[in-house]
Amino acid sequence: MENEAREFSPSAECAKFVANVKYQDLPESVIDFVKKDVLDWLGCAIAGSADPASAPIKEVTELLGGCPQAPILGMRQDNYHYAAMCNAYFGHITETDDVDKESITHPATVNIPTALSISGHSFKSGEDFILAITCGYEVMLRIGAAITPEHYMIFHTTSTSGVFGAAMTAGKLLDLSERQLLWALGNAGTTAAGLWQFLPDGGMSKFLHTANAAGNGILVALLAKEGFKGAPHILEGEKGFFAGYARQEPKLEVFEDFGKRWRTESVSFKPYPCCRHTHSAIDAALDIRKKIQGSKIASAKLYTYKTANSVAGKRNPQNEREAKFSLGYCVASTLLRGIPSQKDFSQSMVEEPEVQALETLIAIAESEELSTCVPRNWPARLEVVTEDGREFSAQVWNPTGDPENAIGWDALCDKFRLLTEGIITEATQKKIIFWCKDLENLGVPAGLIRIANIGFIK
């Protein structure tokens, strides 16, 4: 049986796909999605680069930095590795970057900074840039989906599967052969890491997870180019990634449809600056807010799915990070204030007595019915009784930004402007939007960061 299982190699399928796929193979819908996601990620990363949480990696990069090879948002140039690390770290700070439901990963903030950094190494075009990002997404999303949901209970899948994606993004831009791509995958797997313990303990590790995935993806791809071998059975081997990390029987069928199903375009955009697992609940709260028209709430109960409660079940949050991972706070804030924005997670807003009282009032329950819908849906149901005895309910199956409830270019441009307002000039915003819409014709993709840096408001 073991020999039969070895006949199909997910590791080999990943390397084969990346080695052979061409830009002409990409559907127009995939190309359009990647262009949207580049704009979306740039907005997240520009905002993140101006956030106080960006300071530690900026200081360390200045201390350890090397050759000025690739641009970093809001900073000078540095080597390819540090540039990718910093930009990936920035992109995850505001909790507004994209998310994939099936793998529970954030592919943009790992793969896009990798592509922006290493594209200058080989002087690649906009088409090459789009193709490489797609390669990273297709591999990362499959590896993540193969081991979700059990892996996600302990490991931050964006980091653990993300390093594989970053390695393939970099490897495609470096023109690695199929054999070299397999080596890069092998060494990516042996550097894969990212534990959730930072969440209950209040650590900042989440940003380091994306930084390490991007930086290590570049490292292993460059090593492979120089002949550094890696394990060719890193995913399926008896001492490989699945054996050590999966915590469930891996779903190997996800590796059988490369080039047939494009997982890239199944990724969701985030309209609200908080954990994606809170977004269905926020949409339900927005619906209830319209219905009650300012009436006082006597009781409220939120039904959610197991993973959402596990990751975003923080009660009585005390700061911005905790509030962004608190279903209760997000629902309470939305019921009181409307559509969430970054300011709603400021320290003063988190400490506001009215929102704290309502957060405490909201009961949260895991629903078996809703849990069985995951990962196809990330649903929520909110039931509210007002002080005058009226009852209201709202059910959301697909939060705003999912492919089933999609947002288009106009909404994403508005989001980009909102995230970058006061950080870069309006003229710079327009330039970046223009070039993202015409990304396939952009001669030097890293120029997007240079444009942003020129436009930073001092």
Provide an overview of this structure.
- With 458 residues, the protein is mainly α.
- The protein has 23 helices and four strands.
- It has helices at residues 2-7, 10-20, 28-49, 55-64, 80-91, 108-122, 126-147, 157-160, 162-173, 178-191, 198-201, 205-225, 241-245, 279-292, 306-312, 320-324, 327-337, 347-350, 353-361, 368-371, 409-420, 426-437, 447-454, and strands at residues 297-304, 362-366, 380-386, 391-396.
- Helix 3 runs parallel beside helix 21, helix 14 runs parallel beside helix 17 and helix 22 packs antiparallel against helix 23 (447-454).
- The longest helix is centred in the N-terminal third of the chain and has 22 residues, at 28-49.
Radius of gyration: 22 Å
Strand order of the largest sheet: 2-1-3-4
The CA-CA distance between the termini, in Å, is: 64 Å
Q: What's the order of the H and E elements?
A: HHHHHHHHHHHHHHEHHHHHEHEEHHH
Q: What shape does the CA trace take?
A: globular
The pLDDT mean sits at 95
Strand content bin? 5-15%
Oligomer: single chain
Approximately how much helix is present in the residues? 40-55%
Task: Give the helix/strand class.
Answer: mainly alpha
Low-confidence spans: 1-5
Largest sheet composition: 4 strands, mixed
The helix tally amounts to: 23
User: Based on DSSP secondary structure assignment, what is the total number of beta strands?
Assistant: 4
